[in-house]
Design goal:
413 residues, alpha+beta, five-stranded mixed β-sheet, 12 strands, elongated
């Protein structure tokens, strides 16, 4: 049943129970204090001596007559005392006719007093306490329910706004009026940030699917064309090599896409200590051989050994892409500078540079520079993958470029 209640009713019910408990405790304390004030007898008067006035002791007065308000004393063997004991209700209290009598035995006397008025007052106080608890609980539930409903009014608006959302209208922010530091307003702000992120990912996914389809469609059409050409020319050996090259290109694209998917799903990549100087030296020698026909001038400056905690595959991917781009876009006889220290890695080239408008686009999936600047087939995933590895390792990868003066990529550890 509790699970079927709304949040406002649950909160109101919890506050009501808490209020009822407080009222009950207060009522019980008041009743106990009042009870102790009349139930506890004062010390009985001293016993009578021979020179005491006989009139100071009201004895031998029948209990069934109108009982006086002051104390009466009887001998323990009086018939009235026996009748009193037979009429005992609880703990030294007896009821005779319409009277409630309290008795105590002291100094061979039974001291009796009329407590009817106190009993009646105590019963009235208990009734008042019960009514106070019931009425107070009802008021507590009613007022708390109104306050909670008012407090949750913003949450209701937020819920209504969320119900109207769909995948095609994620750019509409959830507006909640009031202090931005309000708890519900903070929730709406978090929702807006989450929706903006979902929208970017949705748009990115659409572009990703479109561009990936295009990149896969091109080599497939080439393979179909080469197949038809092989039938006509009968030059199967040469055309088979071309088909294998296209198939290998498709395989590389699929492996890259799979790698991107795996990395994007991970929050952080594991690191291990590696010698960056040794890795950079090996990659640099490899690219010098690959692009030796361009007569590129490589200027390097890095220590003999530099140990850093990095992801092994991320290290190769980042550095390889930066070196590959520098070699690929630097014109014939150009210069490439590589510097490495404990804080950062810099790779600069002398290619025509990147405009400010395009500097943000180079990190996007499938973005490629103008075809006239490149001499090698590319899928446009290298820098995106490098940036992805960089972010997952807690590093920073930035670009600085001026048209006509070259480009510098800076990897900050």
């Amino acid at each position: 049943m509790r699970n079927s209640l709304t949040t406002s009713k649950k909160i109101s019910l919890q506050f009501t129970i808490f209020s009822a408990i407080l009222l009950c405790v207060f009522g019980i304390l008041v009743n106990i204090i009042f009870f102790l004030s009349w139930y506890a007898l004062r010390d009985p008067e001293r016993p009578r001596h021979d020179d005491d006035d006989e009139s100071s002791f009201a004895v031998h007065i029948p209990l069934h007559k109108e009982f006086p308000r002051h104390e009466l004393r009887f001998d323990p063997d009086d018939p009235e005392v026996e009748e009193l004991l037979d009429a005992k209700l609880w703990n030294w209290v007896a009821k005779l006719d319409d009277y409630y009598l309290h008795y105590v035995i002291a100094w061979d006397k039974v001291i009796i007093r009329n407590i009817s008025s106190q009993i009646e007052a105590q019963m009235a106080l208990l009734r008042v306490t019960l009514v106070l608890v019931l009425v107070g609980s009802a008021f507590a539930y009613g007022f708390s329910f109104l306050f909670v409903k008012k407090a949750l009014k913003k949450l209701k608006k937020l819920n209504q706004a969320l119900e109207k959302l769909d995948i095609d209208h994620l750019n509409q922010p959830l507006l909640v009026e009031g202090n931005p530091k309000d708890e519900i307003n903070k929730v709406s702000q978090k929702f807006n940030l989450a929706l903006a992120k979902i929208q970017r990912q949705t748009l990115g996914l659409k572009d990703f699917i479109k561009n990936a389809s295009h990149e896969l469609k091109t080599p497939l059409m080439t393979i179909f064309t080469l197949s038809d050409l092989a039938k006509k020319t009968k030059d199967y050996e040469a055309i088979t090599k071309k088909i294998k090259a296209e198939a290998k290109s498709m395989d590389q694209l699929l492996e890259t896409l799979l790698l991107i998917t795996q990395i994007e799903d991970k929050i952080e990549l594991p690191k291990q200590e590696l010698n960056l100087s040794q890795s950079l030296k090996g990659l640099l020698e490899q690219y010098q051989l690959t692009y030796q026909e361009k007569n590129l001038n490589f200027i390097s400056n890095f220590p003999p050994s530099l140990i850093k905690k990095v992801h092994p595959q991320g290290r190769i991917t980042i550095v390889s892409n930066l070196l590959s781009n520098a070699c690929k876009f630097t014109p014939q006889g150009g210069t490439i500078q590589i510097s490495l220290n404990d804080q950062e890695l810099k790779i600069s080239d002398t290619w025509p540079g990147i405009s400010k408008e395009q500097q943000e686009k180079i990190w996007e999936r499938f973005w490629q520079a103008e075809e006239s600047h490149t001499d090698t087939k590319s899928f446009g995933l290298g820098l995106y993958l490098a940036q992805l590895f960089t972010q997952k390792q807690g590093f920073q990868l930035a670009v600085s470029s001026v048209l006509g003066q070259g480009t510098t990529f800076i990897l900050k550890f």
